[in-house]
Structures
1.
Amino acid sequence: HTYNVSADDVGMHIVCYAIPQGDPTLGIACGTIGPFQLDPISRMSLDGHIAAKSHSFPASHLTDETDSRPRDLQIHITQDYVKVTHPGSDRQNREVLVPYSADYPRVKLHPRNVVRFRLELAPDFDKIYKFQALSRSSRDAIVLLLSAFRARKYIATNFILSRLYQNPATPGAPLTAVEATEEFDIVPVSERLEKELDRTL
């Protein structure tokens, strides 16, 4: 079997088990690979996109797996939303824009083809696109940039809000109101979230 490493594997380990057939006394062989990291050029490119707060990627839209005449579209990924547009002057009313939420937008990579992926802007059928990126690195950049902006826009915000009125001595307990004299210092929490995001990328 062949496993294609992708953007989904950044920061992860891959564990492989080999189990012999027949004699169970031979034991089980185990091997671990990782954690996987971005190469310096991809990391520098991703840092540039994040600093710019947006980037556009050309991609081919496929109607199905055997589509021989895909359409050229643009995927715009910003810190606030993801937008799919038809390039050219006639693209009015031919764009789909979706802000970040708990579940969307999201990307699902093709298990065998290293340049194909599915972009789900929403659960609606007309907002699910099958794309083919220009290259493997372009597909990985789309996945990583979308994940980074979504983490900053949605996950980090909810992480902070979920802890605003949480008693740290009783994690998991129901939220309680705080006294008016108590203050919440957001700076240390923001710095810790930024470090966690840097480690993830």
Note: DSSP finds three helices and nine strands in the chain.
2.
Amino acid sequence: TGGGSGGGGGGGGEKAATNPPRCRLRGFGGECLEYPLPYGPGQWPASYNYSGAFPEGFVFGMATSAYQIEGAFREDGRGASIWDTFTGANTVGMPGATCSYCCKNLPCPVNPSMSDIGATGNVACDHYHAWRSDLAMMRSMGLKHYRFSISWPRLIPTGRLQDGVNEKAKAFYNSLIDGLLDAGITPYVTLYHWDLPQGLLDPPRVQGWWSRDENGRPTG
């Protein structure tokens, strides 16, 4: 009795097709590069083959980005970010979430390019609510310089000034900056940390930074 022909005459020696391993890091020519792995336990370098010193006046500090720490992605009038769309967050009804590929019904789809399905900035470090305790930790560390980014879709929900500025976002960032100064920490602001409002990206109708009207003027 034995295996043999199976359905439709397929050869018994054929092997099932397998998917090639996913490339996580590509070079400028498109070639797959070996992904740099972190050091394992007990494998930290004992010495380094470089020397020198930082110049006088060099500023040491700490940095964050709004999407990675703030959370509160649907609170106080924040608009949809392109990252919300990419990660499959619930953007239904959010300001700016009107693109042709934006989520219309739940559950919202996750971009297939994501390597960590389910990771979002919906809550993140909850800095939007916990910024006072975060500042207390910074101060206890002796931090003197802090760079953070302002969330464009939080401040200008659709990305367009003519649609209005979010006053609650202004109050949040003003309070954060005042708190940093009161703690003796110098704030440095990143105006854009890849947090584009979804309302500015819907190719070919709206092209993000490069979006222009029929007269060549920026539409953002």
Note: Residues 1-11 have pLDDT under 50 and may be disordered.
3.
Amino acid sequence: IETLTDAGVRFVYFSPRNMRRTKELASQMGIDVAWNCAISLRPLDEGQDDPHRMTSTYADWDVNARLPHGVEDVKRHLEEVDNVPLLVSLFTDVTEETTSQMVDVFQEYNETVIAVGLCHLSRNDGTFAAADISIGVDFLNEELNQDYNEEHSIGILQATRKIAVNFLSPEELKFVSSVAARSCAFNIQRGSMGHLPKIIGTARASLE
């Protein structure tokens, strides 16, 4: 995250998990999890409390910061209160639809959005299509190539979770991944992620 900041990119993480479940992972990633740090994109009915709202050393973010819940509430906050929703680094309880909607919100306020995500997940398609630049990360093809070279046949591939890829060759999975990443300007393997900040930094410098 520090490297991305040095490259002129503000890192924002969208998590489908609730506040409490996301807090620990976000902290390990180096994301600030103190007061005013996160927004849930799960809308609340009027008068409804969020049972998963996140607390910090200083105060309860939901009660004291009065940060919005849901995309429509974010829009109202931006129009009537301040620009804090554009500055937080963590959005939780997200769906494919609400993530794409937040990309639109960032763009409405003249932000350039670079989306980075797993290219084999169909739920990322909308976000990839909405962003100004999209980068698909292909870790399945990388794992499959390694396993195929060792075993010459594929049953179940161990990745983040068990994923069935019965008897797919590396060439077949590469084709599937390329189709899934059709909205991405770049489709890279996991091992190349470390080069992204330098590439982005060089690209920004060339525009100055």
Note: Residues 54-64, 147-165 have pLDDT under 50 and may be disordered.
